[in-house]
Amino acid sequence: MEQEADRVTHKARKIGTAMRKVLPDLPFVQGVSLLTSSPAKLNALSITSVRGINLHALADWKNAIGFDAHTVLTPQQIAVLSRKLEPKSAIALDGSLRRLADYINLELQTPREGTFHRVYKGVHPTRQDRVALHLYDLSSETPGSEALARREFHALHLLRKYAWDPRILDSYQSAPGYAGEMNFFTMVDPAAPSIGKRSSDVAWNTVGPFGLFTKSRAGSWRTA
After folding, report:
1. Which distant-in-sequence residues (6+ apart) come within 8 Å of 87 by Cβ?
2. If we measure between CA atoms, which residue out of 81, 91, 74 comes closest to residue 29?
3. Which of 50, 165, 172, 173 minimizes the number of CB atoms within 10 Å of its CB?
């Protein structure tokens, strides 16, 4: 137990050193140990700390992470430190993403506040396919999130029998490097105005020269 406590202390020091490069006035980073054994085994230990490392049972996880402790960092500082310690966390925090799977130059199209479902426009570097990439964050483990994430893809899949359907390029799948945390699918981006934008145009109708929908040889759909 003393060896493990020393390892935790060493890791806490490394984390503190890395974060002080960003925030020089960062408070002391205290290491703790969360024990997963049964409560009966933990009670038999009759100790609460080893070499300065406090021990906590699973039921005491709030105290282990200081859940109810006084706030010492602002949300902005937490976001900056999160990116420093784990760069991939930027996607979950604010949607910052320029590359995913085989697509580059991704631009967020939905509000940054919406963390569960985000839509990006991007391009494939070799085929030059322009796509709309739908990304779903499943890391919160909210009940039913997986089913909800699949719902839109399945709805689009059912529309494939129609001539005007939007073309699906990549089926619903795990995002590379985020297995079990994020899933995505892509659709061909026809660079045509959305139906929502068209509906606000008083000069547009569904039978005029700008209201017909056609399908290109590549399978994408656009206004004629």
Report:
1. none
2. 81
3. 173
One digit per residue, pLDDT tens: the chain, 224 residues? 889 999 999 999 998 998 898 889 888 888 998 888 776 776 777 778 888 898 888 888 888 888 888 888 888 888 888 878 876 666 666 677 888 888 999 999 988 888 889 999 999 988 888 899 999 988 766 778 888 888 888 888 887 666 556 688 899 999 888 888 889 999 887 666 666 777 777 776 655 544 444 444 444 444 44
Class of residue 120 by CB neighbours under 10 A (exposed 0-12, middle 13-18, buried 19+) = buried
Closest of 172, 171, 159 to residue 213, by C-alpha: 159
- Residue closest to 154 by CA, chosen among 185, 195, 122: 185
Gap between the Cα atoms of 92 and 94, Å rounded: 6
Query: Could you tell me the sign of the dihedral formed by the alpha carbons of 165, 171, 172, 177, in that order?
Result: negative
